[in-house]
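Quick one from the shared queue. A colleague (R.T.) flagged AdoMet activation domain-containing protein as missing a structural entry in our internal table.

Convert sequence to structure tokens.
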Amino acid sequence: MEKHNPSSFTVDSSSPAHRSSFAIHDLTPYINWIYFFHAWGFQPRYAAIANIHGCDSCRAIWLTTFPEEERSKASEAMQLYKEANRMLNELDRDFEVKTIFKLCPANADGDNLIIDGITFPLLRQQVKKKENEPFLCLSDFVRPLSSGITDVVGAFASSIDADMEGLYEKDPYKHLLVQTLSDRLAEAATEKMHEYVRKEAWGYAKDENLSIPDLLVEKYQGIRPAVGYPSLPDQSVNFILDEILDMKQIGIHLTENGAMYPHASVCGLMFAHPASQYFSVGKIGEDQLADYAGRRGKTVEEMRKFLAANLQ
């Protein structure tokens, strides 16, 4: 893949991480309601209620767009959306969502990234490809070490206030509502943060002018795979990201297995290469498992538990 530096932006490893706190009312426009409704068992078409004007007339017209047998379900979605917004207004009084990111000097070294001088091993795609299509690795989107030219990779994390997770524990419905909204708010904060990174902090897309619906379907340049995404499936790399970002600055703590607390947290990497794309690593064999474990400095058995879903 041809390497392309999307801007003249340069960084050094001593540059501090950038932290932000977002009010919930500023994040609400960035919520992807499809995933919220999915968590409640609704198909994507019901999430369209989020795009309807809130007056009774508009909502009544929206209901008529569904077949008679689906209107009861659509009414449920309408009520859930109303209660979700009421809950967001409550949360807005007491809570914020925090993000942290760092733009790091980086290069690719085979299937590894060298980020801030720290080795970040990656996995290469193994699923069967069409003829002449490459098997991708995230390191393909970063200039190789052999080029002698330093590239840039972003690292990020976002999280809700931990106290939000304990709200309404004696009210199962409200508790679940807070949990599902918390997940969406962490993602919404990441979306808003990434927009700022592209247009200002990194500035490789200064002229970007996308609507929020366009942002939510990722029409922007670059990608931001989160840990747990199909291209970045190993949860244990959270420890590497924590070494780069010091995520406790925004209240994120890792368990011994690398899981994040609060649970409504997300972290990952940002790439600016115009050809960068999402992909699935897929199933890997014992040979790649052993190679990856060696690059991670772990035993094969240690890595097997983190990559169980990817093993043949």
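Strands lie at 18-23, 96-109, 112-115, 118-121, 151-160, 253-254, 260-261, 265-270.
The longest helix spans residues 172-201.
Added to the table.
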